[in-house]
Amino acid sequence: xxxxxxxxxxxxxxxxxxxxxxxxxxxxxxxxxxxxxxxxxxxxxxxxxxxxxxxxxxxxxxxxxxxxxxxxxxxxxxxxxxxxxxxxxxxxxxxxxxxxxxxxxxxxxxxxxxxxxxxxxxxxxxxxxxxxxxxxxxxxxxxxxxxxxxxxxxxxxxxxxxxxxxxxxxxxxxxxxxxxxxxxxxxxxxxxxxxxxxxxxxxxxxxxxxxxxxxxxxxxxxxxxxxxxxxxxxxxxxxxxxxxxxxxxxxxxxxxxxxxxxxxxxxxxxxxxxxxxxxxxxxxxxxxxxxxxxxxxxxxxxxxxxxxxxxxxxxxxxxxxxxxxxxxxxxxxxxxxxxxxxxxxxxxxxxxxxxxxxxxxxxxxxxxxxxxxxxxxxxxxxxxxxxxxxxxxxxxxxxxxxxxxxxxxxxxxxxxxxxxx
Length: 421
Prior knowledge:
By secondary structure, this protein is α+β, with helices and mostly antiparallel strands. Helix content is 50%, strand content 20%.
């Protein structure tokens, strides 16, 4: 039997029981649609969280003193930061590089004092694409280029200190030589992200002013934040930069990907991704079980027919290929139907998303992980390789479901089955 005739016969066999075939195709389409949408939700959400964490911290890759991770003090700095930035910008995946000083301080007002974290940045070099906190300014204004001093407080921290825009506060920290430094600055703005730990314990300061306070050199910082076009390249970029960068005094510089600096967030995302893949594997297993039932029942109903085909010269291999061809046609048709079914909800969720504010937050307090506020508007944006993997898994599951029925069809005994009524 030639290939084209075998294919034509397999296609006709599928539509002998139209309802059964349509139900099977629907199950394949439904399973792949669920898998694509859930994976797309995860890809978009986790990518957004990682990018937000990078824009609130040290970038997708952070260049810092090799011992800073184990002992984060303001005495552990990197020097020749413009040279480090130039080396980082030579990497094709890198889109921005900025210098920062971050650490902890004590901030006091006439009413109260609190401990808080701070990020010192260059207002001229940074914007919301590298420091997301700038788009969270609730009152007043962000620090301006060339501004000698000033401070932006988290909204809740300002409330706790009982200060407002224009009020003076004093912050205290320890410089690189271990000396206590105090600076009086005016509040220029407040920010509100929805993450309680950020709104209640973070401040923004001008980079050059903090450099002078800490007795840093003009090319000295705690971190050089490297931002990538695709966060998935963080490990490879960090590995290459680790081989190329050194400080001015010869100490090694650590090039660390975001997940090393934020293990809590990385663990949360890894757990969610693993859970999603397990759920999708279960969906595929259920779909495969339904497909197996359809193909096996179809084979058992045609045992007499298979016996006749054997009697007129068909080989067991031809019968097995016939059933496998039917499985392949089911897989291809179900996959195409799945793409059609997925198209409209994918387009809508990709463009408009779905607002989960009522489920994820109470009032103005958003859910957070490791100080990162989780988005309450979910979008779908699947990575192409994940979409391909899901489609391939659906096809493989369908083909595997047809192996046993194909073997069963090939082992038919003509003499026994022809006598069946």
